[in-house]
Amino acid sequence: MAVPVFCNSCLCEPRNPTPRFSLTSCGHVFCEICLQKGKKDECLVCRTACRTLVLSKQISPDIQSLFMGVDVLCKKYSKEISQVSEFQEKHRKHLLTYHKQKIAKLEESLKKVTQQMQQIQCMKPPEKTTPLPYSSASRNPFSIPSRKQNVYSSYSLHSSRPSTSETMEAMEIDPVPSPVRKV
């Protein structure tokens, strides 16, 4: 049921022949007869400056909805709201599916990497600790000379020509870098 339209000045309703009705920007409705009696661009009821719009079937849907029954508006907007809600729900489900698939792929990748790490750890031989070269020197003083001892003094116990391995054993290793040497 449409809201009855009537002039806010003379309270007449549209009838045949129907005078045209206008809506003011301040929200009042007037017939064309009353509008002609009043001052131009001034509301007859609230006396404020206003613009007018002739009411017809060609006016915008927003203005037409001002004259529709509340029950009709509820049905119309209820349908629109349902359509918007369904549209948004489809998009939420689509986004949720995408994120679930992405999470599943990431979990699968994590599982593979974890398995690879476990396989690598199982294949890795246990680390052996090697004794320091100076620890063997305490047992056999002739294999590696001390720092203060002459490098060639250990050769006196060997033959006149030492082998390559004997020469390597006789070399002194200095773990402290020299200021001249670049590390």
From TrEMBL:
* Ranges annotated as biased composition (Polar residues): 132-152
Q: Cross-referenced PROSITE patterns, in alphabetical order?
A: ZF_RING_1 (PS00518), ZF_RING_2 (PS50089)
Segments carrying the region annotation (Disordered) are: 124-183
**Can you cite a GO biological process for this protein?**
homologous chromosome pairing at meiosis
Output the Gene Ontology terms for molecular function.
ligase activity; SUMO transferase activity; zinc ion binding
Bias category Low complexity: which stretches? 153-165
Alphabetic keyword roster:
Coiled coil, Ligase, Meiosis, Metal-binding, Zinc, Zinc-finger
Spell out the coiled coil positions from the record. 96-123
Question: Metal-binding as a keyword?
Answer: yes
Per the record, the domain of life is: Eukaryota
* Start and end residues of each RING-type domain: 7-47
Pfam families the record matches: zf-RING_5
Q: Which GO terms describe its cellular component?
A: synaptonemal complex
Q: What is this protein called?
A: RN212 ligase
UniProt source species: Rhagologus leucostigma
Q: Which gene encodes it?
A: Rnf212
